[in-house]
Design goal:
By secondary structure, the protein is α+β, with helices and mostly antiparallel strands. It is 32% helix and 27% strand.
Length: 179
């Protein structure tokens, strides 16, 4: 599988990535195109796309910080969701950034699909954290929403979680502040 870095809207595979992004997440969990392009100007924000035999497989949008990596979005093309490709992509990210803990969040478990999603991450070595985690809204008219926080290596301490939370609210998703 080949990996390509998206640098801007003109990057190869950007349109395929944006199409998969658009249908993979509910409205309250995704950026506008304009906002995503703006985020690409931030040197900490990276988008890697994975391609197999010239066919788009999936992407990871992540942020590189000195003490952790935050995976903001991860999705596969609908016709690529079987066969271990998702495990391959996340294992690749975990391996490339093995010196740092990886942090991501997922929807709370409410049904069989969300339980399978949690199990997928647990099998890859992620640990469910006990912190009450509210994700900031992606639009000015929305409210924060609860997600499960997962990390590699070990659960975040309160101090580590405070650093991640500050990054989420002050740099990664910047519409509203919290108390």
């Amino acid at each position: 599988m080949d990996i390509f870095r998206i640098e801007n809207r003109d990057s190869e595979w950007f349109n395929e990535m944006w199409e998969v992004y658009s249908y993979s997440f509910p409205e309250h969990e995704k950026r506008s195109l304009e906002n995503q392009l703006e985020m690409l100007s931030n040197k900490k924000c990276k988008i890697d796309v994975y391609v197999d035999n010239d066919e788009f497989v999936g992407f990871v949008i992540f942020w590189i910080y000195p003490r952790y990596i935050y995976i903001e979005h991860f999705a596969l093309s609908t016709n690529m969701r079987q066969g271990g490709r998702g495990s391959f992509i996340l294992s690749d990210i975990i391996w490339r950034y093995r010196a740092l803990p990886i942090v991501l969040d997922i929807d709370p478990v409410v049904d069989e699909i969300s339980q399978r999603r949690l199990n997928f991450y647990l099998k890859l070595g992620f640990i469910q954290n006990s912190h009450k985690h509210l994700c900031p809204p992606y639009s000015a008219d929305a409210e924060p929403f609860e997600l499960l926080l997962l990390t590699t290596k070990k659960e975040l301490t309160e101090a580590q979680y405070a650093v991640v939370k500050e990054s989420l609210y002050n740099e990664i998703i910047t519409f509203k502040s919290i108390d």
